[in-house]
Specification:
mainly alpha
Length: 290
C-alpha cells in the first residue's frame, strides 16, 4: 500500500468493510483482534507521508457497535484503536488538520466514562503530554480541550502538575517572542467552563515553542473550571497544588505562565479556608514576595 490518493481510498474502504464485519458477524471484533489485522493497518497508516483527516473518524467507527452510538465496545481492540489515534496525532508528517481532528475525535469519545476507562487502560495522559513539543501551535486549543477530558482524578492531576513544573533544557525553555505578554493575556473569561484562548494566530511558531503556550492554556483551563467546581478545588488541595504553583511562580521562564499560576493560586486560597490557613502558617505570602 503506497502513499497515494488511490491507496488512501483503498485503505478507507478496507476499514469500512472491517466495520461492517465487526457489527454484523458475531464475535467479529474478537476475530479482527485475534487476526492481527489492526497491527498491519497501524504499520501502513503510520508509514504514510500524509494521513487524510477523514481516516481518524472512520477508524473509530470500527470499535463502535452501531451507527449513532458513541460508546466503544468493551474490548482490547478499542484500546488499541485509541492508541492508534494518539499515534496518528503524534506524526510530524501529518497535516495540522488531521492532528487537530484526532484530538477532537478523542475529546468527543472521552466525554463518555466507559470510553475514558478504556483510554486509561491504554494511551493515558502521559502519552498525550509527551506530544506537547511536537504538535503545531494551531493544534493547541484542541489538545488542551482533550487534556481537560482526561484529567478527572487525582493521579492525572498529579501528572499534569509535574508537566507544568518541568522546565526543559535548551532553547525551547525560553519564552517565545510569539507568546502574548501578561497584559495581553488578561483579563480572564468570566464563564465557569473552559473557553480556548486565541492561540491560532501564530501559525509560523516553531514546534519547540509550543510548550509554554500549552502550559498557559492548561493553567487557564484549570482556573476557569475551578471557579464553578468546588470539588476541583478540593482535588487541587489533595495534590499539593499550592506548593507546586509556588514553584511555578518562582521558576517558570515565561512571565505569562507565572501570572497564570499566580491567578490560580489566588483562586485556591480564596475558595479554600484550609488551604489559605496552611499557606499563611507556611509564610507563603512572604515567600512569594522574594
Amino acid at each position: 500500500m503506497d502513499d497515494s490518493s488511490n491507496s488512501h481510498s483503498v485503505a478507507i474502504l478496507c476499514i469500512e468493510m472491517l466495520t461492517v464485519y465487526a457489527r454484523q458477524v458475531r464475535e467479529g471484533i474478537a476475530s479482527i483482534y485475534a487476526s492481527g489485522v489492526l497491527e498491519d493497518l497501524r504499520a501502513k497508516l503510520l508509514s504514510w507521508e500524509h494521513i487524510p483527516v477523514q481516516v481518524v473518524p472512520i477508524l473509530v467507527e470500527l470499535a463502535l457497535p452501531s451507527i449513532g452510538v458513541r460508546t466503544l465496545v468493551n474490548h482490547p481492540l478499542s484500546t488499541q484503536l485509541l492508541q492508534l489515534v494518539v499515534d496518528i496525532a503524534a506524526q510530524d508528517r501529518c497535516p495540522a488538520s488531521t492532528r487537530s481532528g484526532a484530538f477532537r475525535e478523542l475529546s468527543s469519545l472521552l466525554s463518555f466514562s466507559d470510553n475514558l476507562r478504556l483510554f486509561k487502560n491504554g494511551p493515558q495522559l502521559e502519552s498525550l503530554l509527551a506530544l506537547c513539543s511536537q504538535i503545531p501551535l494551531e493544534c493547541t486549543d484542541d489538545f488542551v480541550v482533550l487534556v481537560e477530558k482526561v484529567v478527572k482524578d487525582t493521579p492525572e492531576m498529579t501528572q499534569l502538575f509535574q508537566f507544568l513544573i518541568h522546565e526543559p533544557e535548551g532553547p525551547s525553555s525560553h519564552p517565545s517572542p510569539l507568546m502574548p505578554t501578561a497584559a495581553e493575556a488578561f483579563p480572564f473569561p468570566t464563564g465557569g467552563s473552559f473557553t480556548p484562548g486565541n492561540t491560532t494566530s501564530h501559525h509560523s511558531a516553531r514546534n519547540g515553542r509550543v510548550v509554554p503556550t500549552i502550559k498557559c492554556s492548561v493553567l487557564r483551563m484549570i482556573y476557569d473550571v475551578s471557579k464553578s467546581n468546588p470539588s476541583l478545588i478540593d482535588m487541587l488541595g489533595s495534590v499539593g497544588a499550592v506548593q507546586q504553583l509556588m514553584i511555578i511562580c518562582h521558576s517558570a521562564t515565561s512571565e505569562v505562565i507565572r501570572v497564570y499560576a499566580l491567578r490560580l493560586l489566588a483562586l485556591i486560597l480564596h475558595a479554600s479556608k484550609r488551604q489559605k490557613e496552611s499557606f499563611i502558617r507556611a509564610n507563603g505570602f512572604e515567600t512569594l514576595s522574594y
